[in-house]
Write the structure tokens for this entry.
Amino acid sequence: MEGKEEDVRLGANKFTERQPIGTAAQSQDDGKDYKEPPPAPLFEPGELTSWSFYRAGIAEFLATFLFLYITVLTVMGVVRSNEINGNTCKTVGIQGIAWAFGGMIFALVYCTAGISGGHINPAVTFGLFLARKLSLTRAIFYIVMQCLGAICGAGVVKGFQPKPYDRLGGGANMVSKGYTKGDGLGAEIVGTFILVYTVFSATDAKRSARDSHVPILAPLPIGFAVFLVHLATIPITGTGINPARSLGAAIIYNNEKAWDDHWIFWVGPFIGAALAALYHQVVIRAIPFKSK
């Protein structure tokens, strides 16, 4: 039990993020004494010698693994029902897919927030990096671990059901018939903007300092944003808004059409994340205009 109190106080992380997500934000100061946290350094060499740094990466890996495992299975179940019955009425349908994605994000952000910040998405990590909420070292490490987790999650699904996986599309993201690549790119940009903007708003340090209930509720609006975006964009692209999710499914499915469209699911989310970071930092928080 020795050292437990200090571990909890630091959010189980010696090198904490400047903008923790969810329960990790509960230790913020109250609104009266709030001060803008300093921007994260571009490189933080000390992180590389800290176990908490690698523990955070492992948490991101496992969370993305579980995310892909559950969501890809859900997508395959809906496609299979449509294949057999000609409709999705006998299964969860598009609404169920959206709930699977949103619900898993809600649960996983809640579980991993105090360890890694609960990103589970390279676009979220990229947006927070642009806002100087974490170092470049940590951002790259998170993105690598998220992608590896996604590949393994989709790989386990295919390992259990190799023939159905290939026949049912493996949950891979592609632009649907009747839509152009421009339509798909626009859907990914706007969808990711909504998600990352929600992340910034739900985890805002000043808001957390003022309203004590905000940190506890943070995973809920984030998961709900994912749910709503999926409802809107599943018919267009199958909804990416998460480059790791798209990469994992594309690699394991390995279909020409999926690879032709794959750039959309990196470019779109990264543009959307950058716009959300810019909007929150410049317009909402007006950080560039504050006197030093």
Observations:
- The two ends are 42 Å apart (CA to CA).
- The chain has a mean pLDDT of 85.
- The longest helix spans residues 51-85.
- The CA atoms of residues 36 and 166 lie 50 Å apart.
